[in-house]
Structure to design on (781 residues):
C-alpha cells in the first residue's frame, strides 16, 4: 500500500503538472479538492484519465468519482480493489 | 475621439517586461528564437499556473504589469488577438491523438487549445466580467482586436480596455512553415504584448490611437484614399504622417508581431523620439492590410 | 444609435442546406442527430449531427474546383454565405464592398489532423495544408470565393464565436466603417474537438435532452450560417425590404472558470441584461428565447437559473434549445441559432425542444413542447456561451 501511495502521488504531480510540489507535500489523508491541494473539476477529469491509463479503471460519471477522489488514501484503496493492470 | 495608450508591456526575445531593447538590443543569428521568459512566480502561484502553457503565463504577466502600471484593476474590456492561439498545448493534444490514438487524452490540453483561453484566463485572473473577445485573423489578428476596442470606445460602451497580441511558435510548426518558405529568411519568433487603453490620459500616457483601419486585398489607391480621408478627419496633412523603421527584425516574425510595432512606437513617442503623427502599416502576405494612426497625447 | 437591419441569411447544418430544409425539419420535429457518417473516429458510438453531405459533395455544391485546396469548414461557409448574399440581393454586386466577419475555432484542423505527421517527414506532398490550418485562412477562402469583400476578420471565442462576429459587424455599421457587414460562422466536425469534448465527459451517448432532468451531455454538430447586416441608409439606397432588425446584443465574461459556468449563471445574466438594455426592451417584451441549451448538466442548470433571474421565475418566456436538432455546432452556433430564431419570428412558430420529458426541479419553467406561440412573436433572444465564460446574447425584432 505504501508503495502504491507513493507511486500515485508521483503520478498525480505529473498529470496535474504540480511544479514545485513533492510527494511529501501531499498529505495522504487530506482532501484533494477545494481545500488541501485545491484541485477543481478539470483536475478531476485528469485523474479519471490517470486511473484508466495506469490502472485500467474506467470511471464514466465524474459526479460519482467524488468519493474516490476524496484523498490519495481513498484513491489508493479504490485502485487496490479494482485495478485491472 | 482619441484612445490613450496608458501602458504597454512585452515579453519577447528582448529582455522581458522592460524597455532594455531600446538601448541594449539583443541580436540573434538563428532562424527561430523563442522568447526570454519573465519571472512568473511574481505573478502566479504554482498551483494557479499548473495548467498554463508559456503563452498563458506571458499573457498574465504582461497583463498584470499594465494593470500595476495604470492602477486600472478592472478594465471594461479584455480583447486579444492571436494568429495561432495556444500552439504548444494544441500540438500536445494533436500529437497524443495521432501517435497514441483516441484514448487517454488529457482534457487540460484540449481546454487550453482554444484560442479564447488566453482572454478568458486574463478575465478569470483579474475577475473581469466585462466585454471579452478574441480575434484570430492571420497577420492582422492583433489589429482586429485593437479595432474592436477602438469601436467599443467610439460607441461609448467602455472607458478602459486591456488589449493584447499573443502567439507562440513551436519547433514542429516552425519546421513545416519553413518547408513551405513561409519565413522568407526572417527570424521566426513569438509575441506577447499587452496594452492598457483608456478614454483618459492617466498619469503618463504613451501615445493616442486616432484610428484603426483593416482592409482585404486593397489596391495602393484604396490605401492612399484611406490615409487621405483619415487625415482630413483628424485635421492632419497626409504628408505629416511618418512611418518609423520597423522593429520586427528585433522581435522576430510572428502572426501578431505588429503589436511590437505599436508598442515600440508608443515607447518612442512617450520619450519624444518620434514626431507627433505616426502611421503604422502592416501588410500580411499581400492579402490583409492594417493602418494604425498614432498621435501625440 | 444607428439601426442595423438583417437583409439576408443562409444556413447549412445537419438539417440540410438552406433555409427551406431547415424550416421543414423544425416544423416536422426532425432531428439531424445520428450516427457518425463522414468523420473517422473510434468514438463512433457517440451520436453527432453531421451535415448530410460528404466533403466531395460539398465541394460540388459550393462550386470549388477539385484542384483547389480547401477545408470542409470553408466549403460549408461558402454554401451558407451564398444563400445569404442571394437573399439580400448582393451576390455578384462586388461594388458594394461588404465586410465579412466570421467565427471559427477549429479552422483547418481537419486537414492538419490528417496530414501533420506526414508534414513532419521530408515528404513535401502535404506541406501546403499547413497554410490552411489557421482560422483566418478559412475566412479568406469563404470570402474570396465570391470576391468583393473590403475587409475580413475572424472571431474565436469558442462556442460564442459567430455571435461575437455579429457584434463586430454591427459595430462596424454603427461606427460608419461599412454599410453592409456579413457575419456568422462555420465549423466542421473534427476528430480533434470530438476527442476534446470527449475528454471533458460532456458528450451524451444518446441524443441530447436539453432542459430535461435526465440530460447527460451534448452531441457535437457542424454547420455554417451567415447574416447580411445593413445600415438604414444602405437599405434605402438599394430599395430593399429588410427582414428584421438587430435590436441589441450583449457580451460579458463569466470570469468564473475555464470550462464550468458559474452556478447562478452570472455571465449569462450580464450578457442578457446588456442586450435588453441596448435593445431598449424590457424582459417582458421577449417572445421567445433560443437558449444555448447544450444539454450538459452544468450549462442547462446555470443558464436556466440565469433566465429565471433575468425574466423573473414566473415570467420566463417560451424557451427551447434547437441543439436537439442541429447538435452543438460550436463556433457556428451563434449564426445557426440566430437564423433559426429569425425563422421562428418571421414564420410565427416556436421550435419545439426535442427529447424533453422530465422537468428539472430547480427550474420554474419548462422548455417549449408546443409549436404554437401564446402570442405573436415580435422579439427573439438567442444565447451563445463559450468555454472560458465568453457569454453573448443577441436580440432580433420584427419590423
Amino acid at each position: 500500500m505504501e508503495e502504491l501511495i507513493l507511486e500515485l502521488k508521483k503520478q498525480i504531480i505529473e498529470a496535474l503538472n504540480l511544479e514545485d510540489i513533492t510527494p511529501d507535500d501531499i498529505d495522504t489523508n487530506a482532501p484533494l479538492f477545494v481545500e488541501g491541494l485545491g484541485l477543481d473539476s478539470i483536475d478531476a477529469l485528469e485523474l479519471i484519465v490517470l486511473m484508466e491509463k495506469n490502472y485500467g479503471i474506467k470511471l464514466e460519471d465524474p459526479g460519482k468519482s467524488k468519493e474516490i477522489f476524496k484523498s490519495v488514501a481513498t484513491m489508493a484503496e479504490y485502485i487496490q480493489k479494482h485495478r485491472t493492470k | 475621439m482619441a484612445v490613450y495608450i496608458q501602458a504597454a508591456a512585452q515579453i519577447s526575445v528582448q529582455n522581458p517586461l522592460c524597455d532594455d531593447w531600446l538601448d541594449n538590443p539583443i541580436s540573434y543569428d538563428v532562424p527561430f528564437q523563442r522568447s526570454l521568459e519573465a519571472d512568473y512566480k511574481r505573478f502566479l502561484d504554482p498551483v494557479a499556473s499548473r495548467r498554463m502553457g508559456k503563452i498563458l503565463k506571458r499573457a498574465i504577466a504582461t497583463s498584470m504589469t499594465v494593470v500595476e502600471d495604470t492602477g486600472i484593476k478592472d478594465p471594461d474590456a479584455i480583447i486579444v488577438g492571436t494568429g495561432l492561439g495556444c500552439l504548444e498545448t494544441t500540438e500536445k493534444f494533436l500529437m497524443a491523438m495521432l501517435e497514441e490514438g483516441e484514448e487517454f487524452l488529457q482534457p487540460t490540453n484540449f481546454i487550453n487549445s482554444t484560442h479564447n483561453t488566453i482572454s478568458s484566463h486574463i478575465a478569470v485572473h483579474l475577475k473581469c466580467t466585462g466585454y471579452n473577445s478574441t480575434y484570430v485573423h492571420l497577420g492582422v489578428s492583433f489589429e482586429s482586436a485593437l479595432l474592436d476596442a477602438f469601436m467599443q470606445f467610439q460607441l461609448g460602451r467602455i472607458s478602459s480596455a486591456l488589449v493584447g497580441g499573443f502567439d507562440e511558435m513551436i519547433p514542429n510548426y516552425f519546421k513545416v512553415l519553413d518547408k513551405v518558405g513561409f519565413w522568407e529568411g526572417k527570424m521566426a519568433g513569438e509575441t506577447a504584448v499587452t496594452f492598457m487603453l483608456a478614454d483618459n490620459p492617466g498619469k503618463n500616457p504613451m501615445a493616442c490611437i486616432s484610428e484603426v483601419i483593416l482592409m482585404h486585398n486593397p489596391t495602393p489607391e484604396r490605401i492612399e484614399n484611406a490615409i487621405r480621408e483619415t487625415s482630413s478627419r483628424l485635421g492632419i496633412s497626409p504628408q505629416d504622417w511618418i512611418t518609423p523603421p520597423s522593429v520586427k527584425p528585433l522581435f522576430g516574425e510572428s502572426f501578431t508581431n505588429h503589436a511590437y510595432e505599436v508598442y515600440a512606437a508608443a515607447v518612442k513617442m512617450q520619450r519624444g523620439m518620434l514626431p507627433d503623427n505616426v502611421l503604422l502599416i502592416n501588410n500580411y502576405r499581400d492579402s490583409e492590410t492594417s493602418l494604425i494612426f498614432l498621435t501625440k497625447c | 444609435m444607428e439601426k442595423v437591419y438583417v437583409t439576408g441569411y443562409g444556413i447549412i447544418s445537419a438539417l440540410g442546406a438552406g433555409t427551406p430544409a431547415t424550416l421543414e425539419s423544425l416544423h416536422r420535429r426532425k432531428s439531424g442527430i445520428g450516427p457518425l457518417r463522414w468523420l473517422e473516429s473510434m468514438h463512433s458510438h457517440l451520436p453527432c449531427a453531421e451535415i448530410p453531405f460528404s466533403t466531395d459533395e460539398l465541394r460540388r455544391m459550393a462550386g470549388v474546383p477539385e484542384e483547389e485546396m480547401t477545408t470542409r469548414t470553408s466549403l460549408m461557409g461558402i454554401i451558407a454565405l451564398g444563400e445569404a448574399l442571394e437573399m439580400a440581393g448582393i451576390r455578384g454586386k462586388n461594388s458594394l464592398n461588404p465586410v465579412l466577419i466570421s467565427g471559427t475555432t477549429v479552422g483547418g484542423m481537419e486537414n492538419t489532423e490528417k496530414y501533420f505527421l506526414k508534414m513532419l517527414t521530408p515528404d513535401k506532398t502535404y506541406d501546403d495544408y499547413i497554410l490552411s490550418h489557421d482560422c483566418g485562412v478559412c475566412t479568406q477562402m469563404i470570402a474570396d470565393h465570391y470576391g468583393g469583400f473590403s475587409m475580413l476578420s475572424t472571431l474565436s471565442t469558442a462556442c460564442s464565436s459567430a455571435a461575437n462576429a455579429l457584434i463586430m459587424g454591427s459595430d462596424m455599421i454603427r461606427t460608419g466603417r461599412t454599410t453592409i457587414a456579413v457575419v456568422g460562422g462555420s465549423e466542421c466536425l473534427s476528430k480533434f474537438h470530438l476527442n476534446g469534448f470527449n475528454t471533458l465527459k460532456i458528450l451524451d451517448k444518446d441524443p441530447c435532452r436539453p432542459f430535461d432532468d435526465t440530460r447527460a451531455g451534448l452531441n457535437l454538430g457542424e454547420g455554417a450560417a451567415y447574416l447580411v447586416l445593413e445600415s438604414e441608409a444602405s437599405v434605402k439606397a438599394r430599395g430593399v425590404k429588410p427582414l428584421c432588425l438587430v435590436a441589441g446584443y450583449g457580451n460579458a465574461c463569466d470570469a468564473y472558470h475555464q470550462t464550468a459556468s458559474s452556478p447562478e449563471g452570472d455571465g449569462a445574466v450580464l450578457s442578457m441584461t446588456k442586450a435588453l438594455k441596448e435593445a431598449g426592451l424590457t424582459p417582458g417584451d421577449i417572445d421567445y428565447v433560443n437558449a444555448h441549451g447544450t444539454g450538459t448538466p452544468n450549462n442547462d442548470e446555470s443558464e436556466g437559473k440565469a433566465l429565471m433571474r433575468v425574466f423573473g421565475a414566473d415570467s420566463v418566456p417560451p424557451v427551447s434549445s434547437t441543439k436537439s436538432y442541429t447538435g452543438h455546432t460550436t463556433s457556428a452556433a451563434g449564426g445557426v441559432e440566430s437564423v433559426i430564431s429569425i425563422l421562428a419570428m418571421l414564420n410565427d412558430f416556436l421550435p419545439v425542444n426535442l427529447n424533453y420529458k422530465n422537468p428539472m426541479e430547480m427550474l420554474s419553467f419548462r422548455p417549449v413542447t408546443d409549436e404554437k406561440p401564446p402570442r405573436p412573436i415580435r422579439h427573439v433572444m438567442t444565447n451563445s456561451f463559450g468555454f472560458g465564460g465568453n457569454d453573448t446574447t443577441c436580440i432580433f425584432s420584427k419590423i
